[in-house]
């Protein structure tokens, strides 16, 4: 914590720590390493999906349960693949902008160029934040079972039910909700 123009501000005072943070923490830990890990696991998931698909064609399914399990496995794998593609598409521009920002940090830029870079950075950061919300929408679109469960949960929400008086003073609202959930499952 240092004072800049009489106001307290958090700034890095060590040049070495600043370089470590900019080049290693921001670029490596925030962008490149996660993209590599997601890419590797995406490839492995894709390979597993093809292995499941080829096993399904060669083995005659005897039990209905194993066919259902195979369908669920394939559906989950597809949802994960879609999620990985969304993350890669949203994280890659963020990584490029972070690398560009660090590489051109000490260059002199016009006010117009700075404004353009800030606009691009804000758009990319907004896209980057969308990855955290995308999993819900990805699963909702890709899975009929997930859609059905989401609708069931939303219809069980307390604000959709009318107020009901308690039958005895010893019962708590939590016990009533637990009993209602158990009876509907």
From TrEMBL:
The keyword RNA-binding does not apply. The chain crosses the membrane at residues 23-46, 80-100, 120-142. This is G-protein coupled receptors family 1 profile domain-containing protein. InterPro entries: GPCR-Ligand_Int (IPR052954). SUPFAM superfamilies: Family A G protein-coupled receptor-like. Keywords: Membrane, Transmembrane, Transmembrane helix.
């Amino acid at each position: 914590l240092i004072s800049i123009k009489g106001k307290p501000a958090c700034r890095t005072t060590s040049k070495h720590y600043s370089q470590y943070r900019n080049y290693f923490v921001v670029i490596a830990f925030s962008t490149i390493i996660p993209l590599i890990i997601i890419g590797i696991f995406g490839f492995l998931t894709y390979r597993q999906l093809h292995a499941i698909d080829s096993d399904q064609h060669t083995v005659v399914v005897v039990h209905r349960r194993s066919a259902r399990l195979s369908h669920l496995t394939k559906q989950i794998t597809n949802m994960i693949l879609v999620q990985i593609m969304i993350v890669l598409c949203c994280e890659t521009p963020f990584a490029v902008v972070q690398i560009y920002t660090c590489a051109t940090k000490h260059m002199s830029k016009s006010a117009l160029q700075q404004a353009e870079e800030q606009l691009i950075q804000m758009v990319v950061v907004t896209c980057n934040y969308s990855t955290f919300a995308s999993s819900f929408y990805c699963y909702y679109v890709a899975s009929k079972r997930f859609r059905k469960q989401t609708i069931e949960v939303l219809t069980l929400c307390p604000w959709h039910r009318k107020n009901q008086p308690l039958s005895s003073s010893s019962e708590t609202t939590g016990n009533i909700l637990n009993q209602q959930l158990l009876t509907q499952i």
